[in-house]
Amino acid sequence: MTTAQIKGFLQRAVGFNPNEHTARVEIMAGCTTFLTMAYILAVNPDVMSATGMDKGALFTTTALVSAIATILMGVYAKMPFALAPGMGLNAFFAYSICQMMGYSWQFALTAVFIEGLLFILLTVTNLREKIVEVIPDPLKRAIGIGIGLYIAFIGLHNADIIVRNDATLVSLGDLSSPSVILTILGVVITSVLLVKRVKGALLLGIVITTLIGIPLGVTKFTGVMSTPPSIEPIFCKLEWSKIFSGEMVAIVFSLLFVDLFDTIGTIIGVTSRAGMVNADGSIPRLKQAFMVDAVATTGGALLGSSTVTTFVESAAGVNEGGRSGLTALVAGVCFALSLLFAPFFLAIPTAATTPVLLLVGVMMMAEVRKIDFENYADAIPAFVCMLCIPLTYSISDGIVLGHLSYVFINTCSGNFRRVKVGMYILAVLFLLKFFI
């Protein structure tokens, strides 16, 4: 196969345009996205096993679902986004549905499966795209900024630089801790690489920080390869006896709502940062991206996974220059390889990925320049949105509060023409969510 034929194949398969994209950059971006998300391979099984599900099977399912969904995103949607079982959604599955409400994990998987089917319906009918279209530009930009602050906060919290404090909610952690020292070193090293405009700076920063962690006792290699555990204990274990109950309806609605606006917020934020939004504010191949998300959630439930969603860490690969489906394809292949190299990938410490999350947050702040802060009708709702995403620890809640403030402020100020009919409909639904 000639070079021209390979490039032609990649353009048809994953939207790789040799005139606009560089294969090395896309591959590096895919690896970076994977490495910033690799923590899900360790965290998701730990969270979900609290329900009584087999932890080994959960690891295999997490890697398998992430690989299939991300590859599908690259091949079908041709977008540089990676998917995996969503953080927050897995906690809702394990701690709320199963532990707090007392339902079985089989019941919860059934709720996820139904949610996925409803998502497919919403995508086929274009309702998800219409929701994106009614969100005004200032809020779209605020979503990206809020996500940047959110993932930076997640990184700092995971690295114990910011810790819980009962008196002040949060406070500074122990800076003498080896993991915190490694995180700070990683931030400095990766920042210098970015300042020097070194290609693949984020990925190199992760690798170098991981290696430095060995003498500090933070990075611990326990092996290289292992056979992935069987998913049989959690495969196709749905429970149909209560699908028409009021409890099922409430749980499905909650899952649907959170996943819908988490995905919308992530895609809007990352595409805005990447300059992938059209002049009219539309996002190319948005429907295909939504369909992948919906199908992944439905199929993931059969494999024993909580809701699968597009990850905000995709921003790491986008900031490395990833723009086509090749980035997602590479990230998906990395997830597939992780099935065999689990001990190696799980050795990458949180301290090595935290600097990337922090610096991606810095990069996503660039959108703040495009918000007109002299126009308070735009500035106040945008500020509410970008502030509430990290402070509520929820992308969807931040979007809801920003949206409601935009509708109320503009309506009460007499700016009725600025508020589309669809925004009023969404506002009513949001209020029902909070008060019913």
Number of strands: 4
Envelope shape: globular
**Largest beta-sheet details:** 2 strands, antiparallel
How many helices? The count is 19
Helical content band? 55-70%
Instruction: Give the C-alpha Rg.
Output: 21 Å
Instruction: Give the DSSP E fraction (strand runs of 2 or more residues).
Output: under 5%
Q: How are the strands ordered across the major sheet?
A: 1-4
Give the assembly state of these chains: single chain
Order of helices and strands: HHHHEHHHHEEHHHHEHHHHHHH
Low-confidence runs of at least 5 consecutive residues? none
Mean pLDDT reading: 88
Structural class: mainly alpha
Distance between the termini: 61 Å
Quick overview of this protein structure:
This protein is mainly alpha-helical and 436 residues long. Helices cover 67% and strands 3% of the residues.
Note down, in words, how this protein is organized.
- With 436 residues, the chain is mostly helical.
- The chain has 19 helices and 4 strands.
- The strands form 2 sheets. It has a two-stranded antiparallel sheet. A two-stranded antiparallel sheet has the order 2-3.
- A hairpin with a 3-residue loop joins strand 2 and strand 3 (169-172).
- The relative contact order is 0.21.
Quick tags:
single chain, 4 strands, 67% helix, two-stranded antiparallel sheet, globular, mainly alpha
